[in-house]
Amino acid sequence: MPSRVIAIGDVHGCAVALGALLEAIRPQPSDTIVTLGDCVDRGPDSRGVIDQLLSLRNRCQLVPLFGNHEEMMLNYLEGRAQPDDWLLCGGDATVESYRGTTQEATVPQEHVDFIHSWIDYWEIDTHFFAHGGYHPEQPLAGQRWQIWRWHSLRDSVPAPHLSGKIAVVGHTSQKSGEVLDVGHLICLDTYCWGSGWLTALDATTGQLWQFDREGRARD
Questions:
Q1: Which helix (H) or strand (E) covers residue 208, if one does?
Q2: Are 201 and 207 in contact (CB under 8 A)?
Q3: pTM of the predicted model, to two decimals?
Q4: How far is the CA of 162 from the CAs of 122, 138, 183, in angstroms?
Q5: CA–CA distance from 150 to each of 18, 25, 51, 125, 169 (Å)?
Q6: Which member of 6, 10, 80, 138 has the greatest number of CB atoms within 10 A?
Q7: Which residues, other chains included, contact 160 with Cβ-Cβ below 8 Å and sequence gap of 6+?
Q8: Cα separation, 64 vs 120, whole angstroms
Q9: What mean pLDDT is reported for the chain?
């Protein structure tokens, strides 16, 4: 079986959906799975999502990308100032997932170190992957982390990148549950934590998988 490069949209704490998606994908050692960021917050089990990703590293090549919600989480845990209140942006659900049966929520250092290792973008010959957006006229290696993590497609859809590669992003939730595909850019945030789907795309074949937050596959 040829190797696959599979991107997974914003999980947002939906561990059941992620588990069902991975069961359907059946990652092989030759596969690369790229998570597009915002794996935490809003949904019910961010801790379970991080545990699954830690385990997934033993099954395939995992490339986790940094989202704005991971940025807010680390800023909060490490006491750095930030413009948004993480707890009001879905961080309260993450805290509850780490509370378990005790009254005190503790994020294991292994989880913190793991998230610190995530990167802002990744590329192959035909595609590049990021959480939010990109500057179309700047080389990928020279772009600012702010645009990688925070740019919303509601503000603007970037023009095709000068590399000619297709961008695969998340961050801007498509509340219709449908993948946004404008040719040079594909957005896989299909609102799983709300009423939509967790979406994965095999960039090498175009195959799609979608599951809702209860782990049910889309027909």
A1: strand 208-211
A2: yes
A3: 0.97
A4: 16, 7, 14
A5: 23, 29, 25, 25, 11
A6: 10
A7: 136, 183, 184, 185
A8: 9
A9: 96
The answer to whether residues 70 and 94 touch, using CB atoms and an 8 Å cutoff, is no
Encode pLDDT of 22-65 as tens digits: 999 999 999 999 999 999 999 999 999 999 999 999 999 999 99
Beta-sheet strand order (sheet of 5-8): 61-64, 32-35, 5-8, 198-202, 208-211
- AA letter at 150: W
pLDDT score of 219:
85
| Secondary structure (3-state) at 1 | coil
- 199 vs 196: CA distance, rounded Å: 9
Residues 6+ apart with CB under 8 A from 181: 187
Tokens 């089990």 found at: 45
The separation between the first and the last C-alpha atoms of the chain, rounded to the nearest angstrom, is 25
Which domains are assigned to the chain?
Answer: 5-211 (3.60.21.10)
Biggest CA-to-CA distance, the chain: 51
Phi, psi of 5 (to 5 degrees): -120, 110
Handedness of CA 145, 125, 160, 193 (dihedral sign): negative
Q: Tokens for 45?
A: 């089990």
Residue 35, burial from CB neighbour count under 10 angstroms (0-12, 13-18, 19+): buried
Contact yes or no for 66/119 (Cβ under 8 A): yes
Tokens of 131: 């959480």
Q: Let me know: does 193 contact 42? Beta carbons within 8 Å.
A: yes
Contact in structure between 213 and 31 (CB atoms under 8 Å): no
